[in-house]
Write a structure and sequence with these properties.
Oligomer: single chain
Shape: elongated
Structural class: alpha+beta
């Protein structure tokens, strides 16, 4: 099983909670950590922006990425949500097995 950690910033805690609940409820993710209080600096439409955000750390199976991406895009209020996936190259085998089990259909 190939596991991924996906990172997604959210504009507020309510959005982060709503997306996390949907991803877990729909078995698109095994676990979502919500890290509040991050500060993002980025360029958007030619301007440097500063934003207080919450960061989602989403653990999922690689074969769920397309569905997860579609769901995040549908739920996220941003014109261009940040969503990046990083391949997990190692970890506790029992945990990785749990991620696989939790992201299978019900």
């Amino acid at each position: 099983m190939h596991a991924l950690v996906c990172y997604c910033t959210c504009p507020d805690a309510a959005t982060a909670d709503r997306i996390a609940d949907a991803l877990i409820g729909e078995r698109l993710a095994a676990c979502v950590n919500i890290l509040p209080g991050i500060r993002s600096v980025y360029r958007w439409h030619g301007q440097v922006e500063h934003a207080d955000e919450a960061l989602l750390m989403i653990k999922t199976a690689a074969d769920r990425l397309d569905a997860l991406t579609a769901r995040v895009t549908a739920l996220h209020p941003a014109e261009l949500p940040e969503l990046i996936a990083v391949e997990v190259v190692g970890g506790l085998p029992a945990y990785l097995s749990w991620v696989a089990d939790q992201t299978r259909g019900a």
